[in-house]
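Per reviewer request, we include the raw input and output of the structure prediction for the construct analysed in the revised manuscript.
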Amino acid sequence: MHTSPAANLADPVLALAGRQPSAAAVITGEATVSFAHLNNLVGKAAARLRQSNGETFGFRFKDQFLHLVFVLGAFRCSAPHVSLFANWPDSMGVDLVAQTGAGILFGDEAWTGGGEMHVVSLAALEGDAVPANETLPQSARDGRLLYVLGSGTTGKPRIICYDATNLAAMIARDLSVRPIGFQERYYSLVRFEYFTGKRRTLGCLAAGGTVIFTEFPVPATAIYDQLGADHLSMVVGQAEAILDKLDGDGPRFPKLKSLVVGSSPVSETLRQRLRDGLSPNLFIGYGTNEFGEATFAGGETQMAHPGSLGFPAPGVELKIAGPDGTALPAGTTGEIHLRAEGMFSGYLNDPEATNAAFADGWYRPGDLGALSEDGALVFQGRVDDLMIRYGTNIYPREIEQTLEAIEGVRHAAAFPLTSKNEWQIPVAAVTLVAGSGTQADLDHFCNELTGICDERLGPKAPAHIWIIKHMPRNEAGKIRKNDLAALVAKEMNR
């Protein structure tokens, strides 16, 4: 699927409406919506957007199906838009509206966060007249069609801009890695307003598959049993929650064609639990909101390359670069550089960050990694998290993988603390699989962890390890290391 920057992206996504209009596009609750019906609703949503005469729109729907309809409607009339998160506090939505200039909002409930709010229901949209064919689409400002909030692991998320070309290329790349067959069913535990959920939902429809929407929270096991999902997508925390509730032997989803787990690093221990407990057809990879899917690893690749995030997706160029941008040899850690058709358009109103994200046509996500001899990517953490101690480079992911390989450890996060002499001290925090136990038990286990790290990592071992109950995470499930460092510093100063 390829389209020009100002093109209508809705039509290629809904192409099946013309070829097989009765095919199932969406299952929502007990209702099944055909491609023809979805296409009709999208036309009505586009008409409402055109009639409102807005330049940029904000969408805030609890109903994921309605959200999908209006996003496709915005694509059809080339209208810039941003998705507000239904579970966010109003203050965060207000800030996003202000930054994007979304003066007109559509949603399924009233909102007092500013702008002109249009409350719409599915029943009301169904009652609209079928719009006449439009010949003049609304022009996209600077070619931008969609604004997405970055993950914000540092606490400072940015607004990412895309156009139709970006999205079409990302969708095509996703489908080349994990194909979805005609009328195969896709279910995501990641809500539609998140970019990952949005991108994969649109990909499913473009492939002629069927999207399953439900009200949250719904156990994935129920969706699989009742609706027969062929493809499942979730973040690490959701996958762990499902695993913790399972009993019995063998994969819970034996017929699943793909189980995609992402948003944060997946340890080898967790990978094995996922393959054994949920599905052998586990897919993991490396990507960003800005770039989309960069690498992927299916079951065989994971077994052959433990600890890696697989090989570049079709059409993706990847290099590990030194400070001067020169490619480094295999096995050497450096900065990850990516290049492909469909990279994002830049950060909204932030030319400095946009310029910093690119170098000679390569996108720089700010991550560290190394390549195996045959080109598999090993993730080593954020560039900003690199620690240097006594002239030795210390990569956080190396510490985290060492700790996560120890029985009893669920998650590990390594990061630097600054000493009074302004030296970087590598430290780590871990969460445990089992119950907390007594303080004496925790102290003993912590000493064991320290000893193992000293033995396996030598001078790269963390100077201190803390056992905590929960990792601070953002909405996408990624660990907020700035918050974690502040928490640990507070504990040290008690």
